[in-house]
Write a structure and sequence with these properties.
Helix 7 runs parallel beside helix 8 and helix 14 crosses helix 15 (about 345-355). The chain contains 18 helices and 17 strands. A 7-stranded mixed β-sheet has the order 3-4-2-5-6-1-7, sandwiched between helices. Strands 9-15-12-11-10-13-14 form a 7-stranded mixed β-sheet. Strands 8-16-17 form a 3-stranded antiparallel β-sheet. The chain is an alpha/beta fold and about 475 residues long. It folds into 2 domains: about 5-240, P-loop containing nucleotide triphosphate hydrolases (Rossmann fold, 3-Layer(aba) Sandwich), CATH 3.40.50.300; about 260-445, Nucleotidyltransferase, domain 5 (2-Layer Sandwich).
Amino acid sequence: MSDIKVQKMVAAMYKDEERKPIQLSAGQQDIFRLIFGRVHPRNWLAAHTRYGKSLTVALAVLTRVATFPEKWAIVAPSEKKAKIIMSYIIDHAFDNDYTKQKLDIAKGESLEHLRRERSKSRLTFKHTDGSMGEVYILSADSRNKQTAGEALMGFGASNVVLDEAALIDDDIEAKIFRMLGDKMDNFYFKIGNPFKRNHFLKDYRDPKFYKLNIDYKIGLDEGRLNEEYIEECRKKPFFDVLYENKFPEASAIDDKGWSNLITDREYDSALVDKKDVAEFGTRNIGHDIARGGGNFNVWVKRSENFATILAKNSDNDLMSTVGTTIRLAVENKVDWQNVSLDDTGMGGGCTDRLKEQGFRVNAVKLGGQAKEQTKFINRRAENYWKLKKWINNGGKLDKDGDWSELLDIKYKTDSSGRLQIMSKDEMRRNGIESPDVADALMMSFDSTYVRMFERPLQKKKKHKNIYATRMV
């Protein structure tokens, strides 16, 4: 649907407070089109405050449920916030006969009462063939995570609009996402201002999400803001979040002294399309092994200048994992001493099995002693620092949203000045999922042949690379 058709449809169907046809701006037309047309399955929207996004979303959802027999859930950090969109839906459902006549009113309830109170948490629309369209609201109150999570788990919808998304904690958002699981054909639309570096940032980095970023400059171009007002707003707190749509800086130190290892700028500069890179140098594979609880097995291949994710799965079968490691090493012509695995827990079982079969992989004890003991608290910290230096000196990552886990890795120094990385247990307590992809890349820096990258990377002459030729 073109923007011209959107504008004509909205103007014909809906009225503003002065009972004049609603005229959507160019950005609002984009929002309406994305929702009504379900153009992309995954959508991310940031719009400057007071842009009119709640009204636009409401009109698009209303038109959709009145046209198609679908279920739509509006989820927000509180019931009060969720009711903002619902109140717009109720209010404008009476603007035209098309939506008004399809409203399915409960026995004993009148249209006039519904219009006056605008307090319903669920609306249904009856189509001519007897099928139903439905929209309802839910609260995802992060102040009581357990109660909110349990409440959300009882609902399902193939279309979910998550309002004020950045204000919803990661673990609750994960349960909201599960609501889509009932249908393969589903639609997820996240809206918010970037107050926190949580799932809202991660999905902004994810190439699967279609992004629509409407900052104050677009508001000025569309005539919704003026320069005088913006200059006043610059003096107020959160101008960067509310009007520039900028996330908080990753380099900020938290109240416990932790800083992000990889900054936004470093991360953005590292992502490239594979077709734009000519790989060179020794190949390495880092393998992070799943330990249950939703963790993943991840295999990352890294050459001297480029890294890509080879495979990712949740298979808990040790023998299957070993077989995949062998296959990937052979296919990518990687010397066995440059295949690095964590040699603790289940990882120890994998390395033992590989060595039993004659594959002399690099077994790494990440909690063990660092090679430079005065600088790093353990091997994990040492390898992550090598990773950071590699990126700073030109190392590139194949574009993949899973690399965003690197932005969750935090570091600080201990009382002796040695660098340490936040443990997985502490990350979990802070609501951060296990960084399996990041750890696999980190593991690749523990191989027998690995440079510390003191200087920017330069393409080397080709040299012979001994690699595995055996399969199980």
